[in-house]
Amino acid sequence: MHIDFYSARFTAYQPATSGNEEFCEDLPDTGPTVFVLDYLHPSLKLVPVDFRIIRNTTGQGRFAQWEDVAALGDLEPLTLYYHPPVIRPDASFQAEYDFSEKGEYIGIVTAGHPTNDNTYRAVFPFAVGTGRPWLTLAALLLVALGLAVWWRGKRKRASTA
Predict the structure, then answer these.
(1) Number of neighbours of residue 117 by Cβ within 10 angstroms
(2) Taking a C-beta distance cutoff of 8 angstroms, is the pair 88, 49 a contact?
(3) Is residue 6 within a helix (H) or strand (E), and if so which, with residue range?
(4) C-alpha to C-alpha distance for 32 and 26, rounded to whole angstroms
(5) How many whole angstroms separate alpha carbon 159 and alpha carbon 145?
(6) pLDDT per residue of the chain (161 residues) written in tens, 0 to 9
(7) Alpha-carbon distance 151 to 146, whole Å?
(8) Rounded Cα–Cα distance for residues 56 and 104 (Å)
(9) Residues in contact with 8: Cβ distance below 8 Å, sequence separation at least 6, in sequence order
């Protein structure tokens, strides 16, 4: 993740449903979610960083950017979760939120500058409750394989009768 010139590694976890599996974009389930931002840029350890989650009402879907979010106006009434600015000298920011509904959301990370009043933002749209498409695909493939084996066996029995 890039917060202007800063960089950080963003990871989300859903321990209740996925254990230690890491997610960097969409989240397969609703429920408790842990967000971790590990700072890769050393200056991030010196500045306040905050984190906000809003519903994605920009109309831009996955392509929402800060300009789209800013156009929504006051974010306070749209905010589902807010972690106030904190300086993390250990270079790891953590926040937790319990998603009760499936849907499209936007995470917003804001960081200051160590020597001036500049503010930098990263916006990342994500979906919650998307399921696990690979699991659905694997189940469909297993069903198709089972049907093919059953059909082949049926045809073989019919030809020997």
Answers:
(1) 6
(2) yes
(3) strand 6-13
(4) 14
(5) 21
(6) 889 889 999 999 999 999 889 898 899 999 999 999 999 999 999 999 999 999 999 999 999 999 999 999 999 999 999 999 999 999 999 999 999 999 999 999 999 998 899 999 999 999 999 865 544 444 455 656 666 666 677 777 766 66
(7) 9
(8) 5
(9) 1, 37, 38, 39, 40, 41, 44, 109
